[in-house]
């Protein structure tokens, strides 16, 4: 029996041993679904604290419960480890390592390169390799296929190679790894056939495409689409601010059209691992073909400018109360990049915090999910407790993340000036609530220039 037929049989009868390289927001949920699919899983991560936590039945990913980890361990088919040499025992591996941007805003593929180096050291022939890390079109071939073929291995014969972009949305109660359709492209027909066969045992729907480049591009298209549309709405918010029009009411009205319109919303900036980074991966790759994407670069510029706009809006509001930003006490409400999660990656709130500090404000934050972060000075900043009487003592509150657990009516009733960047206080009419995308002077008809007691 050849390598292809042998692996196909192992996948079908679930005797294949699967490795997941990287046990973060993407890799850990994938490992869980692979175990649920009936396979033995070796989860590999260089972070000793993560591996020890999993061995103890403790999860560090919000969407994966401790109980789920314990259930996986109880099957006897989950083996967290820091030892890459277990690759020698495996029949398939999924690479789920980070792909950040460098300080120069270029793709940093060093984690993929490191994983591939471990594969070259420990792999056996007949291994199915699937890259899930978000990256630019051509990565799968350039960083994996070509490297392995230099060693004498042939894709589609000695090893099988696919790309299947992760589509994890942290905190989404409706869509998980299991029920989110999975795009997959292989370097040969046999590669995509084996990859599709495996993933169909892990998730509800698999969508095969003609090549890894198509799969890689599809992921970047998804998030660049969102980035461009969010940027457009942010620009509309800036325009409506100048015109004295309520941008939130405009979006609500436009959303009543049953065709030809899809609502996106402005905010204090973009966050998470995908939207701030993915468009830059695509733009970087396009420049290699002497193609400059004006949409991507303009969208990125607009989105990057929103924390400065939040600062400007806060300055305007404090001025109404005869206060300057310097020495004002500001409370940031919410620091995670989206509601009801603890994920701080690329959160615009972090930049807003630094801007307030740079301008001399005394800044605290409250977030029931994201309990601490490290500021640019290298200091640990911790969330203050929820204390409404304490909240009343601030000069203003800036809503960055619209967590569902926030009591917006109670916050409004404090009488403290609020800068609402998410329309979280929708339906609460009060002269001290100021919204992003609305002119401060036109929005507030009667403003007392004394601070609440």
Structure in words:
The chain is of the alpha/beta class and 453 residues long. Helices cover 39% and strands 14% of the residues. It is elongated. The termini are far apart.
Short account of what is shown:
This protein has helices at residues 3-13, 27-36, 48-55, 66-74, 110-122, 139-150, 189-199, 212-243, 247-254, 278-287, 294-320, 348-358, 388-391, 408-413, 440-443; strands at residues 17-21, 40-44, 78-81, 92-95, 127-131, 159-163, 182-186, 206-209, 329-333, 362-366, 372-374, 380-382, 396-399, 417-420, 433-435. The protein is of the alpha/beta class and 453 residues long. The strands form three sheets. Strands 3-2-1-4-5-6-7-8 form an eight-stranded mixed sheet, sandwiched between helices.
Instruction: Please tell me how large the radius of gyration is.
Output: 25 Å
Strand content: 5-15%
- What is the molecular shape? elongated
Give the fraction of residues assigned to helices: 25-40%
Strands of the widest sheet, in order across it, are 3-2-1-4-5-6-7-8
């Amino acid at each position: 029996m050849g390598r292809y037929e042998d692996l196909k049989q192992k996948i079908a009868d679930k005797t294949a041993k699967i490795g997941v390289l990287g046990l973060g927001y993407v890799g850990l949920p994938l490992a869980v679904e692979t175990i649920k699919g009936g396979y033995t899983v070796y989860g590999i991560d260089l972070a000793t604290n993560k591996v020890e936590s999993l061995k103890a039945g403790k999860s560090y990913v919000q969407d994966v419960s401790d109980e789920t980890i314990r259930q996986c361990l109880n099957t006897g088919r989950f083996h967290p480890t820091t030892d890459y040499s277990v690759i020698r025992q495996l029949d398939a591996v999924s690479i789920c390592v980070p792909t950040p941007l460098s300080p120069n805003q270029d793709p940093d593929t060093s984690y993929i390169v490191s994983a591939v180096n471990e594969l070259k050291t420990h792999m056996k022939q007949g291994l199915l390799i699937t890259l899930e890390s978000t990256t630019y079109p051509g990565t799968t071939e350039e960083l994996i296929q070509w490297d392995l073929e230099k060693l004498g291995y042939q894709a589609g014969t000695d090893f099988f190679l696919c790309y299947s972009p992760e589509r994890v949305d942290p905190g989404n109660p409706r869509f998980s790894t299991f029920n989110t359709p999975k795009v997959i492209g292989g370097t040969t027909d046999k590669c995509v056939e084996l990859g599709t066969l495996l993933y169909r045992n892990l998730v509800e729907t698999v969508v095969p495409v003609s090549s890894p480049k198509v799969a890689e591009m599809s992921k970047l298209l998804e998030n660049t689409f969102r980035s461009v549309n969010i940027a457009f709405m942010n620009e509309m918010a800036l325009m409506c601010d100048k015109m004295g029009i309520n941008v939130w009411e405009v979006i609500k009205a436009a959303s009543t059209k049953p065709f030809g319109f899809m609502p996106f919303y402005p905010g204090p900036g973009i966050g998470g691992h995908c939207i701030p980074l993915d468009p830059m991966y695509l733009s970087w790759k396009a420049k290699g073909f002497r193609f400059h994407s004006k949409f991507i670069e303009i969208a990125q510029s607009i989105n990057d400018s929103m924390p400065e706009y939040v600062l400007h809006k806060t300055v305007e509001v404090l001025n109404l109360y005869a206060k300057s930003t310097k020495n004002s006490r500001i409370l940031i409400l919410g620091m995670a990049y989206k509601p009801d999660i603890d994920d701080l990656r690329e959160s615009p709130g972090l930049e807003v915090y630094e801007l307030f500090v740079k301008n001399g404000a005394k800044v605290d934050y409250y977030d029931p999910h994201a309990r601490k972060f490290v500021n640019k000075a290298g200091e640990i900043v911790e969330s203050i407790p929820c204390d409404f009487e304490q909240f009343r003592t601030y000069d203003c509150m800036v809503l960055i993340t619209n967590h569902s657990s926030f009591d917006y009516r109670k916050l409004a009733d404090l009488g403290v000036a609020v800068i609402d960047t998410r329309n979280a206080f929708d339906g609460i009419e009060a002269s001290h609530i100021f919204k992003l995308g609305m002119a401060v002077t036109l929005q507030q008809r009667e403003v007392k220039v004394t601070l609440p007691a």
